[in-house]
Amino acid sequence: MPDTDLSILDELYGIIMDRKENPVENSYVCSLLNHRKGIDKILEKVGEESIETILAVKSGKREEIIYESSDLLFHLMVMFVAEGITLEEITTELQKRRK
User: Fold this and answer.
1) Mean pLDDT throughout 34-58?
2) Which spans are transmembrane here (predicted)?
């Protein structure tokens, strides 16, 4: 398995966190974090992207799987920020499961 620069996840998380702390007009992330429905809107997007990822896998089209999985991961990260969950907490849990 080739080495991959996972710092993009940290960078993306930081951007999402910054949008939460410093809202920007017309920002998609801000629209999710500040939506009148609150966390429900974010969960709706996580559900939608989950289904789209499943359908992409069923289609067997690698490019679609990557595209939809990226959307799902992005929306999960928005959910983490909204709920005050850090990437470190997620990686710690994953490390526990590996042992």
Assistant:
1) 94
2) none
